Description:
The protein is α/β, with parallel strands linked by helices. The protein has 8 helices and 10 strands.
Amino acid sequence: xxxxxxxxxxxxxxxxxxxxxxxxxxxxxxxxxxxxxxxxxxxxxxxxxxxxxxxxxxxxxxxxxxxxxxxxxxxxxxxxxxxxxxxxxxxxxxxxxxxxxxxxxxxxxxxxxxxxxxxxxxxxxxxxxxxxxxxxxxxxxxxxxxxxxxxxxxxxxxxxxxxxxxxxxxxxxxxxxxxxxxxxxxxxxxxxxxxxxxxxxxxxxxxxxxxxxxxxxxxxxxxxxxxxxxxxxxxxxxxxxxxxxxxxxxxxxxxxxxxxxxxxxxxxxxxxxxxxxxxxxxxxxxxxxxxxxxxxxxxxxxxxxxx
Length: 307
């Protein structure tokens, strides 16, 4: 099926550089992400992937350059956190005294009501609370936890808790969702289940695009697992400190930058990929993103038209 590409951008990073004192982390990073794309961000340890996510989130704005995110229909500088961006970390942080339902509803509660409202307007709060919890139930169903809404975190497996954390991000309906190694602490079977959950969200995007509607989910996932990156993302972005910065006139490394940008194969939920078929892509990524002995120009492997 041919899907019409939506032209709106959810993210526009322009000449982003970041450093901590004398430590150079990111250099002249340029990246545009269309609404509805699922970007897999890969790269060697220490190349600044998490720093980049926090720059997008707004907690660590770049030292140079701009990061624009879609806010109220316009691309606006993301120099502080906002509800247009959500993040899920490897270490899920659920409140142990709240059920799955109330953990997911909490974001709406804090965003749309005040403590004074909840204390002095009992009837109004009761109505709002029901709306929030009903909405939370919808998103728990979406992540496959419709039967676990009344469970507490200590009653749930690690995979279930991570599903709750993802539902917490989804319910706020951000323009872009950031996932920082979200499945890194989980066993292989659970990882595959959660990958399929993300592919279900991607399928919802495709259905929206086929109707010329805005796709509901835009996602950047950081992962060290190349098979996961290829399976979940429709675009592979390689961030690396291994590029030929000396030929660009530097005496010392100015930091990591985008050295690889390619489309990835698309999979449907529950479609079991032949991981051996990923071998050519994996070799390409290892050669140009992870290999310190091959220092190519940072523009040699950027074939995506969004760069």
